[in-house]
Structure formats: C-alpha cells, structure tokens
Please model this.
Amino acid sequence: MAITTSQAWTAVGDPTRREILDHLTERPQSVSELAVNFSMSRPAVSQHLRVLRDAALVRLRRQGKHHIYEVRPETLEALKSELDSFWRRSLATFKQIAEEGTPTEEQS
Model:
C-alpha cells in the first residue's frame, strides 16, 4: 500500500499524536512506556499509534512479548521535503515582490 504525505499531514494535525511522535523521536518505546506521559488510557494511546502507523509515521516491531513503536524517518523526510518546497516558493515570491517594489502613492 502506497502511503501519501497527505495521510501523514492529517495524522500530525492532532496535538496528541505530535506529542507521541516527539516522544518516539527520543527512542523507540512500547505503548506502556508512552502512556505514562499522558493522562489517557493505554488503549487511547494505542489508537493514536494506529493512526500514526497507518500514515507510515511509525512502525511496529515485536521484541519478545512487547510491541515497540519507532519513528519511520523516511516519512518524516518526505514531510520535511514538502515543507522545504513550500518555504522555497514562499521566499522566491517574497523576493520577487520585494525586488519589484510597491508603487508609491504618486505612481498610483
């Protein structure tokens, strides 16, 4: 299944999921480890992780009996590339406007 960055953008639109992702950038963690950082149940954290996993932002691996979640850097890189593209175009537009200048009242 191909993952689109629009799925990832939607997933990180939620502040709780961004916070979970932030914790996972520190190190891979289990649901139990993540849940201690939140005032929600482990099943609620699991639901957020499922959204992040479906958006290809995290992956799940088994380590014995534990399910360990870790960040998928390739998806974060795709999001970063899109942001960089937006930023480059915005700066180019700003530069063009600045170089053209704005008409003065006398020129209007």
Notes: Residues 5-98 form a domain with the Arc Repressor Mutant, subunit A fold (CATH 1.10.10.10). The first strand starts at residue 29 and ends at 30.
